[in-house]
Every structure is written in C-alpha cells, then in structure tokens.
Specification:
By secondary structure, this protein is mostly helical. Helices cover 80% and strands 0% of the residues.
Length: 392
C-alpha cells in the first residue's frame, strides 16, 4: 500500500472511529448509570450485577468468534458490522421499560449480542485498512474517537438529569438518537476492504493454522490476565461506597474514559516504536496498580476519582495494544478468525472475572476481590516478560 492509498484507507479508520464515537455516546449514557439502576431493581445486588455483566459480556465475546470466522469465509466485513451496531442501538432504549433483574439481563444480553456480531469483523477491517507499521496508531485513533464518545455520554447523562430534571429512564430513551447517527455514518461512509487471499476457506484448517506457535501462548497469557480483569462497573460501585452521589456517578465514569482517551494514541504509537508486547506489559502493570489502590486508598470522594483515572489508563493501553498485536501473528486471510478466537478466550475469562470478583466483594469484602485480581495480574506480567524474551 503506497502513501496515497494509505492516507485514503486511513479515512476508513477515522469513519469507523466516528461510528464508535456516536455509538459510545449512546452506550455510555446508559452504562454510566446502569449499575446503580440495576441495584435499585427488585432482587438487585452486587453479585447479580456481576452475573449480568459476566453473562452478557461472555456471550458477546463468544459471538465475536463466530462473526470473525464468517467474515473470513465470505470476505465481507461491513454487513456484520452494520448488523451488530443496529442490534445494539435498538436494544439499549428498552432499559427504560425494565422492571426486574430478568428484564435488565435480557436487554443487556441483546446489546452485547450486537457488539459480539460487529467487533471481530470491525477490528479485521481496521487492520486491513492500514499497513503493519501503522496498526498501533490506527487502533489508538479508533480507541480515542471511541472513548471520546464514552466521555460525552456520561456527561450528557448527568447534564440532563441535573440541569433538566430528567429521570434515568428518560436517559435510556435519549440514547436512541446518537445511535441512529452512528448507523448513518456506517451505512454511507465506511468502505468494504478485505485483505483476504482468494481461495476456499476451510474452518478447521484455518482454526488449526491460527491457534499454533507463539499466538497460542499469547492467547494463554491474555486469557490468564483476563480471569482477573473486572470491568468498570466495580469502579463505579467503589465510587458510590466512597461517597459519590448517584447523579455524579457518570462523572466518575467520564474520568475513566478521559484517561482512556488521552492514553490510547500515545500507547499505540509507543507500541509501534518499541514493541507491542512491551507496552502490553505496561498496561497489565497499570491494572495491577489500580487493584491495589481499591482497598488501600482513603474512603473519600477524591480517591474514587483518582482510582477511576488509573483504571482508565489501564483500559486505554490494554484495549489498544492487545487488538493491534493480533495481526502480527496471523495471515491477512485469517484475521477475522484470529480476532474471533481472541475474543472468545477473553470473553470466557471475562465471565469468570466479573462473577468471581462480584461474589468475593459481596461475601468476603473488597480486600479479597482485589487480592484475587492482583495475583492473576502479577502472574500474567511475569508470563509476558518470559514471552517477550522469546519473541525478541
């Protein structure tokens, strides 16, 4: 790909970034207040929240494996991306009508089904749109636009509730508007690009080709780390426990997304320059710091915001670099499959992480859940050091 072509195709990354921007405005308006909303439903508890998040996200990750493989087989990415975003944007407003934990679970699952359908084909499309030495930057740019939407979303939720007196359920209905804008950009602005070679696609042979050698070890380490990597919901619950009021919880989530956004492009560029494996270790180390801060920081409002900022740095590094790392271990024609398998491994681990952390937190306290996550993070960092020496 020459410089002119690269600049042209980088616009595909930018447009996909804006699709994610408007989708995240929609999503994070909802998700920034969803943990507190779920706790207020009949039967709501921290353990129930962990179970809902774990089930929804694990199903999402499993579907990424399926959509990734299918996009390789048919050499089509955009149709799956469009379908996935459509399902999510239709589902989220229905939280406004939820009256039970079961309702919340079904809607959350539907939203994550949409994410599962779109994510692996989208990541493959991003990697196919730029040359290898620009992938870190491309994924960093995508994360930055994506997370900018994740900043605007919680701020919008807080603004309409505090300034206009809207209810949580009103915010859920409002999420339909930015989601519709995202679909318009995707439909008319994003080009289909598939860097697959011609020839018959055979699933079992492709699977065996992907899951071999160094990529297999990388998947193992990523999966191990993910067994302890809980999601942002627990950072928001911790903030509530530190005295942050319900109407200001979205601001805590905005802090997570601000640091996530700030670090994404620098992390991607650093990964391109010094090595993606090394920068991934830095991300794992940042998560370790955040797990240790949870039980040790003073139980005051300022601590909640500081922990959220550190957690956002971890997310920005890891979610950028892990995705940029995958294409270096597989051929272009199998990238959808590789991303799908990667997300499958992470998704199963994610279910375990959120379920275990939620149960430990509720039954044994914050220290127990933090020690669980920090122990797995430490082992994963040591494993990545050994892996990195083998790659070098």
């Amino acid at each position: 790909m020459d410089e002119h072509e690269e600049m042209g195709e980088f616009q595909n990354v930018v447009r996909l970034g804006f699709v994610s921007f408007f989708t995240d405005v929609s999503s994070e308006m909802v998700f920034s207040i969803l943990p507190v909303f779920i706790l207020g439903l009949p039967g709501g508890s921290i353990a129930a929240l962990g179970l809902i998040e774990g089930l929804a996200e694990s199903l999402s990750y499993m579907l990424r494996a399926v959509s990734g493989v299918i996009s390789d087989k048919f050499r089509k990415r955009k149709i799956f991306i469009l379908l996935g975003y459509s399902v999510s944007n239709i589902a989220k407003p229905f939280f406004a009508a939820a009256s039970s934990i079961t309702d919340a679970l079904l809607i959350r699952v539907a939203d994550r089904v949409g994410k599962g359908i779109r994510t692996a084909p989208r990541d493959a499309l991003i990697s196919d749109s730029v040359s290898a030495n620009k992938r870190g930057e491309a994924f960093g740019l995508h994360r930055t636009l994506d997370q900018t939407g994740a900043i605007v979303g919680p701020l919008t939720a807080t603004a309409v509730m505090v300034l206009l007196g809207w209810t949580v359920r009103d915010v859920f209905w409002l999420s339909l508007l930015p989601g519709s804008i995202a679909l318009f950009i995707l439909l008319f602005g994003v080009k289909e690009i598939v860097g697959c070679q011609k020839g018959e696609f055979k699933f079992l042979e492709g699977l065996q080709e992907v899951v071999k050698g160094k990529f297999r070890w990388l998947l193992g380490l990523v999966g191990l780390f993910s067994l302890g990597a809980f999601n942002f919901s627990f950072i928001l619950l911790n903030a509530k426990g530190m005295g942050v009021g319900d109407a200001l919880i979205p601001i805590v989530y905005a802090v997570v997304n601000v640091t996530h956004t700030i670090i994404a492009i620098p992390a991607g560029k650093l990964a391109d320059n010094v090595g993606k494996e090394k920068v991934l270790m830095l991300g794992y180390g940042t998560f370790l710091v955040s797990t240790l801060l949870l039980p040790t920081m003073p139980r005051v409002v300022a601590s909640a915001y500081f922990i959220a900022a550190v957690f956002g740095v971890y997310m920005g590094i890891v979610e950028t670099v892990q995705r940029a790392l995958i294409p270096g271990y597989v051929e272009s024609r199998l990238r959808g499959t590789a991303y799908g398998i990667y997300y499958l491994v992470v998704g199963i681990a994610f279910f375990v992480a959120n379920t275990v952390v939620g149960s430990l937190w509720e039954s044994q306290g914050l220290w127990a859940s933090s020690l669980y996550s920090s122990a797995l993070a430490t082992i994963s960092i040591l494993g990545m050091i050994a892996f990195n020496r083998g790659v070098s």
